[in-house]
Amino acid sequence: MLHKELKEKQRKLRDNFPEGLALRVHRALSWLDKSEQCNQDLDCQFIFLWVSFNAAYAQDTECLSFNETQSFSHFLEKLDKLDSHSRIFNLLWNEFPNSIRVLLSNKFVFQPFWQLHNKQITEQEYAQRFSDAKRAANFALANKETAKLTSIMLQRLYTLRNQLVHGGATWNSSANREQLKDAVQFLSQLVPFIIDIMMDNPNELWGDAHYPLVNK
User: Fold this and answer.
1) What is the 3-state secondary structure (H, E, C) of 6-65?
2) What global pTM score does this model have?
3) Which of 13, 80, 104, 146 makes the best surface tag, with the fewest CB within 10 Å?
4) Residues 131, 107, 31, 54, Cα dihedral to 10°
5) Are the CB atoms for 113 and 126 separated by under 8 Å?
6) pLDDT one-digit tens code per residue, 3-44
């Protein structure tokens, strides 16, 4: 589902949206649109997709009591329960199962790999964490736990997000092309589904926008 389709749907439904949802959807769609305009630049596309995802889910409470990955895990559990058309389920198990397995096995999007190289953990600790993470991912795959697997995927992509946003990678670097390609392919479908599910459920408690619109 592309920005254009979602925008048309938003125009038809937005009068019935609570203020918080209306602002979240409006902002998320604006960044989704920008990501589609940057389809020749993987770095920009990924960053704008992540901003669109952030616009959809971020809440004031997450900076007070949760770290970011915990916050979007709760958000994904809610989406999974509301996804009456199994859009995210089908994305995981019908469209991207092989790409997901490859990304989950990629050490470069696994944060403890960088902790090892920064001498924050030992080789033994890294090996154990990677083994535990693969076991958790394989369990989610085997049991088709949609919210859990999506959360694990986004935790890996969060490492990639940090590399780019915090200047830990070079623009258009050959070193991270494969994981960026997989990430963009996945997010470019996941993020529109998230926005669509939110619009289909306007009466759910999505919370106020992280930064409300202030006119003065």
Assistant:
1) HHHHHHHHHHHCCHHHHHHHHHHHHHHHHHHHCCCCHHHHHHHHHHHHHHHHCCCCHHHH
2) 0.91
3) 13
4) 30
5) yes
6) 899 999 999 999 999 999 999 999 999 999 999 999 899 999
